[in-house]
């Protein structure tokens, strides 16, 4: 797979990367626009507050003293773009001939593009010390800068398309971009975990409907990953084996919830699935991160990933038999940076909050208050329906 990566700086100093799979750009015959003509000030320029210039500070995060979780306080995101009109899509290519627009991509076309989020919940500010301080002078109340990074990945230039429409070649380019950004972000000082994901559908809370995903680089290990690590580390201490690998082998031995198995990947409904529609996608080989995948594994992944998305869109149907596009979250779990890296393996969690046509799975008292999940179905029923529609 030949992909050309081109790095530029946006007008306010943020990074943008073009990932091109079109032959004329891969060969160098053509190049992408490198300048951003928007009249934006550098994002780290001091701002005026009550008549005084104040340095820009990073978003902060506070540690919950009961659970140990870090909670970023991204108050500036209240002003981010929300459901813009179709002619003001900030993820669309620039309009040909226009002096500038308030879009994020300077070129009039692109294949895949990744750029730093204009309204990030995690951001490192040059010169600002990444250190813990107390809140209200109380030793139990700890705050520190949310010194991570948030990136947006646009899968293609057309608002009306999705990954399934774009096909195998574009999916491969997206995989190359995920792998590249994971590799580069893991090298950033202070980053503990890189998370590639896609929120899809208004029911999930998507505010910009252009086909895109996000990449977060956290300055801490996230709560869900920490729970998995705790279990995996205890399991290794007891058995000497990798928990995620053994789960995959157990699912293969059972076979009851397997949706698809290829040379390199297995797609299945997890034995304790908690969402109304849920699948997990795992490589057969011990792999910690997306950039560790071989060329053959990436090719195989592109095909099975698109089949998974297509099956999701056929899971529910209207009364007239029309398919209902599935709102979903596709979340890549990668091994964290550090000593416990070998305890977790790469895998994707794909799930939806849609429990039936027109009805959502609400996270009510038990789920939200106690994190004690109650499923509205069974993994086997989810499997049976997915088998009916998979590959059709």
UniProtKB/TrEMBL annotation:
Q: Which cofactor does it need?
A: Zn(2+)
Which class of enzymes does this protein belong to?
A: transferase
Residues forming the Galactose-1-phosphate uridyl transferase C-terminal domain are: 231-388
Per the database record, which ranges form the Galactose-1-phosphate uridyl transferase N-terminal domain?
Answer: 58-221
* Pfam assignment, any one: GalP_UDP_tr_C
- Gene Ontology terms describing biological process: galactose catabolic process via UDP-galactose, Leloir pathway
Quote the EC number.
Answer: 2.7.7.12
Region forming the signal peptide = none
Any keyword Ion transport?
Answer: no
This protein's UniProt keywords: Carbohydrate metabolism, Galactose metabolism, Metal-binding, Nucleotidyltransferase, Transferase, Zinc
The record, for InterPro entries, names: GalP_UDPtransf1, GalP_Utransf_C, GalP_Utransf_N, HIT-like_sf
Q: Which domain of life is it from?
A: Bacteria
Regarding protein family, the annotation reads:
Belongs to the galactose-1-phosphate uridylyltransferase type 1 family.
What is this protein's name? Galactose-1-phosphate uridylyltransferase
**What is the species listed in this Swiss-Prot or TrEMBL entry?**
Gleimia coleocanis DSM 15436
């Amino acid at each position: 797979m030949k992909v050309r990566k081109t790095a530029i700086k946006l007008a306010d100093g943020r990074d943008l990367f073009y990932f091109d799979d079109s032959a004329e750009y891969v060969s160098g015959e053509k190049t992408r626009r490198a300048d951003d003509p928007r009249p934006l000030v550098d994002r780290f320029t001091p701002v005026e507050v009550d008549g005084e210039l104040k340095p820009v500070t990073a978003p902060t995060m506070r540690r919950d003293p009961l659970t140990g979780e870090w909670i970023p306080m991204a108050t500036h995101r209240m002003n981010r773009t929300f459901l813009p009109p179709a002619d003001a899509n900030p993820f669309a290519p620039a309009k040909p001939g226009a002096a500038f627009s308030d879009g994020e991509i300077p070129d009039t076309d692109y294949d895949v593009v990744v750029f730093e989020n204009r309204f990030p919940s995690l951001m490192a500010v040059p010169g600002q010390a990444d250190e813990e301080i107390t809140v209200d002078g109380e030793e139990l109340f700890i705050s520190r800068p949310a010194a991570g990074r948030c990136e947006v990945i646009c899968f293609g230039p057309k608002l009306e398309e999705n990954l399934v429409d774009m096909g195998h070649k574009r999916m491969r380019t997206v995989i190359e971009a995920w792998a590249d950004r994971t590799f580069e972000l893991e090298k950033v000082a202070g980053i503990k975990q890189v998370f590639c994901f896609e929120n899809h559908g208004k029911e999930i809370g998507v505010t910009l409907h252009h086909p895109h995903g996000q990449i977060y680089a956290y300055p801490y290990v996230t709560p869900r990953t920490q729970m998995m690590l705790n279990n995996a580390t205890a399991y290794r201490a007891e058995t000497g084996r990798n928990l995620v690998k053994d789960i995959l082998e157990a699912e293969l031995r059972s076979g009851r919830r397997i949706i698809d198995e290829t040379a390199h990947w297995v797609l299945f409904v997890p034995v304790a699935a908690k969402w109304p529609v849920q699948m997990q996608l795992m490589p057969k080989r011990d792999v910690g991160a997306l950039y560790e995948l071989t060329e053959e594994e990436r090719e195989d992944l592109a095909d099975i990933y698109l089949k998974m998305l297509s099956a999701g869109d056929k899971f529910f149907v209207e009364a007239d038999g029309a398919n209902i596009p599935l709102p979903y979250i596709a979340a890549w779990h990668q091994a964290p940076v550090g000593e416990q890296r070998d305890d977790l393996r790469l895998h994707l969690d794909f799930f939806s909050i849609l429990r039936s046509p027109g009805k959502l799975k609400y996270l009510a008292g038990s789920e939200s208050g106690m994190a004690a999940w109650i499923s509205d179905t069974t993994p086997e029923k989810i499997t049976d329906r997915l088998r009916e529609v998979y590959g059709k």
